[in-house]
Amino acid sequence: MSDQVTSMHANPVRERLRAGGNAFGVMAFEFFTPGLAPVLAASGAQFVLLDMEHSGVSIDTIKAQIAHAHGAGIVPMVRVTACAYHLIAPVLDAGALGIMAPMMETREQAESLVAACRYRPEGRRGVAFGVAHDRYTGGAAVPKMQAANEAILTIALIESARGVDNAEAMLATPGLDLGWLGHYDLSDSLGCAEDFEDPRYIAAEQRLLSAAAASNKPLGWLVPTGEAAQLALRRGFRCICIGHEVAVLRNALTQEFAIARKGDTAAP
What we know:
Layout: H1 3-8, H2 12-18, E1 23-28, H3 36-43, E2 47-51, H4 59-72, E3 75-79, H5 85-93, E4 98-101, H6 107-117, H7 141-151, E5 153-158, H8 161-165, H9 167-171, E6 178-181, H10 183-189, H11 199-215, E7 219-223, H12 226-235, E8 239-244, H13 245-262
Parallel strand pairs: 1-2, 1-8, 2-3, 3-4, 4-5, 5-6, 6-7, 7-8
């Protein structure tokens, strides 16, 4: 396999997680500008997780953001709206190196996610080359397929009581790289929305952590702060989003405006 093909599809986040390491990034919902990925890279993010489920963003915007992420040297990953081939394929061909599928609840769904993200014989991803995902290059298809199969990170977002009940089977799926805790939806599914101290939620979260450990698969989570990330790492999570960009900006400005107004002697 040529060095060009290997570097074209390299995914250092998948490599770190498979080697037992940790990875840190930011989720993005709103500020899809050319500067987003470079700003995140400058902050130390290793990946950006671009959301399509709740943002209403189009594939054109996602394609541009993926290109900006590649240019900035961070890994572009995308949360699609559902685990369906026709929703996953265009995002992969746009150059995404990771796919997160929401509301994953069964091993069959996990198998479908893997199949959509891998070329044969590992899956059934459709074949198209000389486009965004292989940087518009020519050359033989088979080495590109092999490199892509080594690069694409598959992520099952587990965020329901049924998903937790089936977590052991899902996370044992060959080719599934990463489980992810969707804490808000999970708490809502359990009947304790946003109450993360409820015994039902605590038990479900622990079961998910135990399932990940039993299958030797890393688990991801979105947390609000670096301090929360440290706690998450100690508890067994290994792929961490430090908030999403809207919350990070809002929270930072809220704090700074509060500090500023302490010195506002002209305030009524």
